[in-house]
Amino acid sequence: MSRHAIHLEKAIDELKRLILSLGTDVEESARLAVQSLTQRDSDLAKRVIEADYEIDQREVYVEEECLKILALHQPVANDLRLIIAILKINNDLERIGDLSVNIAERAVYLSTEAKVELPFDLQNMAKKVRSMLKRSLDSLVNRDEKLARKVCEDDDAVDDLNREMYGCVAQAIKKDSNNLNSYIQLLSASRYLERMADHATNIAEDVIYLVTGEIIRHGSKTEEAEF
Amino acid sequence: MSRHAIHLEKAIDELKRLILSLGTDVEESARLAVQSLTQRDSDLAKRVIEADYEIDQREVYVEEECLKILALHQPVANDLRLIIAILKINNDLERIGDLSVNIAERAVYLSTEAKVELPFDLQNMAKKVRSMLKRSLDSLVNRDEKLARKVCEDDDAVDDLNREMYGCVAQAIKKDSNNLNSYIQLLSASRYLERMADHATNIAEDVIYLVTGEIIRHGSKTEEAEF
User: Fold this and answer.
1) Contact B180, A173 (CB under 8 A)
2) Which of A88, A149, B7, B30 reaches 20 to 30 Å from B172, CA-CA?
3) In this complex, do B105 and A224 lie within 8 Å of one another by their Cβ atoms?
4) Which chain A residues are within 8 Å of B80, Cβ to Cβ?
5) Would you call A168 an interface residue with chain B, using a CB distance cutoff of 8 Å?
6) What would the pLDDT profile of A31-68 be if each residue is shown by its tens digit?
7) Candidates B67, B173, B225; nearest CB to A105
């Protein structure tokens, strides 16, 4: 292996490490955002909102590193595809971070309102979404097509949960229209989780393309018409 | 100018042409989606949904072209930045296309339900969003930082409209909870428009970075806590 190839390999390994570490922190941010909502903890929510600044900075750093590698090493074929995939995945991670902020903002609002009950387990939904995110990144690092396909399949389950949440909220509003705002905010939180799952699916689709050359994105990205 | 540089310049010009043409069609798709909703025209809505397949194919094509240029011409500095910006903008355009599909799906649903009235001009909101999209692409082609900044500013106006829509819907539901579903669907449409404006803002922010090197993304991308 030439010295140039060794340098490129090292740079790509470092890039993978960066994106994985960003993914781990974005996942944690999503966990804490939902926790702040369900536990009505506005201090925690505010910490999630503030911490997003660092996530944003790291996304910028990863993008700069990708550009540096493209300019310095001028990779082709598989290496080029991998770096472009990481550029896109980096973007998805940053947007998941933004969605955690959106959830945390709902948590701040809801902590000042009367508590409303909903027969829906938002933390369970969030757990599923975080698992999708984690596995999508694992599939990237291990070039694991099978795992990536599993993530894409799981997106339907999260869509179903979002619809279930919608049913719960619609029923609740009919019975108790005084707390309309709070219910709509809770519904927003569920939608944000569903959008996080879409981003995890984007990541998995990029991995499938990277490994097999098969384009499967644009499949089930749109929401169902009945909701 | 070397033969290599001339080839690269031609390839980049063709790329700009492709992204502009995609942008025009995405803008038209957004227009028709909102028209199908306000005119309760489910045939038009279905055409918007079907036409998205072609938009998706073209996004894939643009990405392939970007990768080809990176591999064949190995551009550096400004050219490299431009191609990466186009890759990202391409992605934003595809997602705007998806949001048009989401709106059209709502239109299909609403066309089967009783008509509800809302004192809110969704078409006016859509017009503002399409103007943002158009100007963001103009700012790319003309490397017009000032125009790009104007697009970013306009995002706040669209956020305000979305909040206004929310107020209208909340009031309507309180008065007429029988048509809850329809109102929530209309609210979704307004949110989809607001997300389109976010994508146009992303594009403008990429242009500002391209022209000035200044990173201004991650500014006002999250929604306000009160809604």
Assistant:
1) yes
2) B30
3) yes
4) 67, 70-71
5) no
6) 999 999 999 999 999 999 999 999 999 999 999 999 99
7) B225
The CA–CA distances, whole Å, from B114 to B47, B106, B180 equal 22, 14, 11
Note whether A180 contacts B: Cβ–Cβ < 8 A. Answer: yes
**Cβ(B132)–Cβ(B181) under 8 Å?**
no
Specify the pTM.
0.90
One-letter identity of residue B42: S
Please write the tens of the pLDDT for every residue from B158-170. 999 999 999 999 9
Nearest to B70 among A80, A88, A173 (CB): A80
For the purposes of burial, counting CB atoms within 10 Å of the CB of A186, is it exposed (0-12), middle (13-18) or buried (19 or more)?
A: buried
Contact of A176 with chain B, judged by CB distance below 8 Å, is answered with no
Written as six digits, the tokens of B187 are: 């609210």
Of A96, A107, A97, give the one whose Cα is nearest residue A44: A107
Architecture label for domain A3-212: Up-down Bundle (1.20)
- Asked if B81 reaches chain A (Cβ–Cβ under 8 Å), the answer is yes
